[in-house]
Write a structure and sequence with these properties.
mainly alpha; four-stranded mixed beta sheet; 16 helices; 4 strands
Amino acid sequence: MSDDGHQPTGHERVPSRQRRRFPGISSRAYEHPADRSALVALRKLSGFDTVFKALSGLLPERSLRLLFLSDSVRVSERQFSHLHDMLLDACYILDLEKVPPMYVTQDPQPSAMCIGLDEPIIVVSTGLVELLDEEEMRAVIGHEVGHALSGHAVYRTILLFLTNLALKVAWIPLGNLAIMAIVTALREWFRKSELSADRAGLLVGQDVRASMRGLMKIAGGNHLHEMNVDAFLEQAEEYDSGGDLRDSVLKILNVLPRSHPFTTVRAAELKKWAESRDYQRIMDGHYPRRSEDGDTSVSDSFRESAASYASDVKGSKDPLMKLVTDLAGGAGDLGGRVRRGFDGFRSPPPARGDARDGDEE
C-alpha cells in the first residue's frame, strides 16, 4: 500500500504496509553519478532522439515485440495477476504515467530486462519468478521500471543489437574491432545503469533486506536458509580489498564482457546508498523533479560524476586503486611497488648457488 491509500488488488499476499510515493520524481534522484552524467550529455545533444529513432529500421524491435507476444505470457489482470499488481504499484510509486507491457518468458535462467526504442517493454524469466518471493520480486520489478523511467531501454536495445552484430561479423577483423569498441563502452555505461536501477528497486520495495536477498538468490540460488546477508556483504568487502595488483587486473578482465556488475558488488553499493543522506532525503520527499530536467547542467553532472569516481578511488581498498591514489599523492618507490605487485605473473627466479635457506626479500 502506498502512503496515500493506493493498494493493488487481486493478490492477498501483497503486504498491507505503507510505502511512500514520489510524485514527479526525476530519474536523476536515484541515478548513479556515472550513469547520470552520460544520460544528461546524450539528452542534451541536438537531434540525438531523431538519430536513434532513425536506427529503428535497423534494430529488431518490432521482431522482439512480436516474439514476446507470440511466445511468452503477457502479464495482466488475468495472467500473473500478482506481477501485474506489483507493476502497477511500481509505476504508481515512481509516477511513471504509462505502464509498460510486461511478459513472462520460459527460461530457467533467472533474468529480467527492459528493452525497446519507441516504448519500453519488461521481460522476466520463469526462473526469476520461481526463485524470488513477493518482496524480492517487487524490488526487481521496481528495478525494471527504474530502467524505463531513466530511458535505459533504448540503449539496452542497441547494446543487444550490437552484441549480436559483433558475433555475425567476427570474421571481419576491423569491423569487429570497431563494433566491439562501442559494445565495450556501452557495457561500461550499462553496468553503472544497473546500480541506478537497483536504487529504483529499493525506492519501490522500500525494504533493503528484500533487495539484498534477491541479489543473494541470483548469486546462490533458492537456498536462503543456507545463506546470510551479512556474510554475503563480507564477500564484497573481501573482493574489493583482497589480493594484489594481479588480482586488480584480473577483476577488470573478468568484468569487461559483462553487462551487469557482480552481485556482491551490487549488494554492497546498494547498502551504501541505502545508508546515505541522499536516500533519506528522497524518502523525506526532497528530490529532483522531472519538471526541472530541462534545466540540468551537463557540466554539473560531469563534475558530480568525476567527484564520485574520485571518492570511489580514494576510499577503495583495491591494490590498483591504492596505487593510483599514491601516485596522485606523489608517493615514492612506485616502480618497486608495481614490480612486487606483479611478481606472481613471472616464474620464480632460479636458485643462486647453494643458498637454499637464505632470507627472502
